What does this fold into?
Amino acid sequence: MNFDEIRPYRDEEVKDKIKNLTTEEQFQQMIGFIRPDVAFEEIKQLMDSISSIYDFQSKFIVPILDVLINKTTQGVTFHGLDNLEKGKSYLFVSTHRDIVLDSALMNYVLLKQGFATAEIAIGDNLMKIPWIVDLVKLNKTFIVKRSVPKEQKLDASMELSSYINHTIKEKGESIWIAQRAGRSKDGDDRTNPSLLKMFTLGGSESNVIDNLKGLEIVPFSVTYEFNPCDALTMPELLNKAKGETYEKQPMEDMIHMGKGLEGEKGRVEVSFSPPLNNTIESFRDIKNRNDLFAAIANEIDRSIHLNYKLMPTNYIAFDLLNGNSNNAKSYSSEELENFKNYIDSQLEGVEGEEELKRETFLKIYANPLINYLAAKEG
It folds into this structure.
């Protein structure tokens, strides 16, 4: 397989793709919104000087993230990088809260700390606009074919799996992929065992365990003290709570993408868990493949839940949900009042029964703590 339909751009393609990108009016508008202090001609001159993917990330993407982090967060911190070795490739299986920033912030931290950045998996449902395709493929993104006919899904999964195995084991590049299709809008981070099955389809080893160990799976999570899209996700979550189906609105993903970038996020932390190879090896005696994938998925979840950086908003939401103040030592009275006011402001424009709205919203922030406590007990 040459993977040309899904792979990121290569160094030799950078000049032409940047030339196309800088002529796009929507791209110019986006840059003007992020960097109103800099004339686009100056940005264009910088981009015209770029001739490699590394330069694009370090000279263009990182400065933009610096601006966004400064504008919309109280800082980005990290822990767990000591679990990784420089020069080694990993498969980061990640929580997914924000369409763009989850993977972007991971690569931001990796680059700043002297690690190679990872290639990023993104669904083709987000790739409707040609200049966005160019932008993300310049930023080491590859395409996951989700909108293919049912009869082509196995072929698409085989291609994706082969690309992941090729990239990690032969190219020596790391990969970021969400732990399941779609974001965990309710804050309940769970790995789909089918994802692990997909990883093994294109592996060269005959044994599932050996295939997965060759990928060096690392559970990864991003914590946002405030989720900028929390109110935007409420209609879907309320429908789900009432057992009703939800129809995604036109351009909904693009709206969430923009809000995720520009919205206030408070404190942000990225967390790298230890690689899972020793744990995966301990499951070698599980002969049923479905049981094996389920066991490994549970272990990814457990690692994420234990290493997820809990914020005051998580503890406050948990206490408000339970009608007590058992975790008051984990937040101040000022943080409590601020979050109460924040909840009221976010729910003001959301239609629905008041008690269900409040409970559903609180669970977005309480679920990470609920999962942490369950993992700790287990």
